[in-house]
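Example 3.2
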Amino acid sequence: MIPYVFSTPLTTERLALRIMTADDVDAVHAYQSLEEVARFELFEPRDRATVAEKIEKWKNSTRIEKDGDYIQFATVRRDTDELIGELYFALKSAENQNAEIGWTINPAHQRQGFATEAARAVLALAFDTMRLHRVHADLDPRNEASIALCLRLGMRHEAHFVEDLWFKGAWGDTDIFAILDREWRS
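Structure, written as tokens:
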């Protein structure tokens, strides 16, 4: 239910999703500084100082109560305790019980099912614990890996917005994928 305060890491078979800490700066910088990672993100490759500033904000964001509240989960391998990515979860409308999900995985750990595993854990949190109605993902329609992930999660393609976003010096499109609580449970 909302409000929700995140205090205990979410765990899956291979992962722990926890709040970012200052100790995570180097691991996050290792992939956020890569052009191939930033390609579909709203940011350019980040320097270490920018990553440190972001983590300083993220580590204090643990409460989901009102529109715009979010958690930026560190995605950590349980076997090695290595941070391999992050998962974004934000409440878009408390009144309409609607949230957004997004993910980034270090390229060295992609194609191993980690993003799917992490996203399923957060969808379970959204639907089973927080009792939300709908979760959506906004993504670049050129991001084939994220589209495939949405489909694996049981999300449906709801919309394609043409040139709705000024993105890195040019107009870009946006795809919307979503899943409802009743679809999650079926």
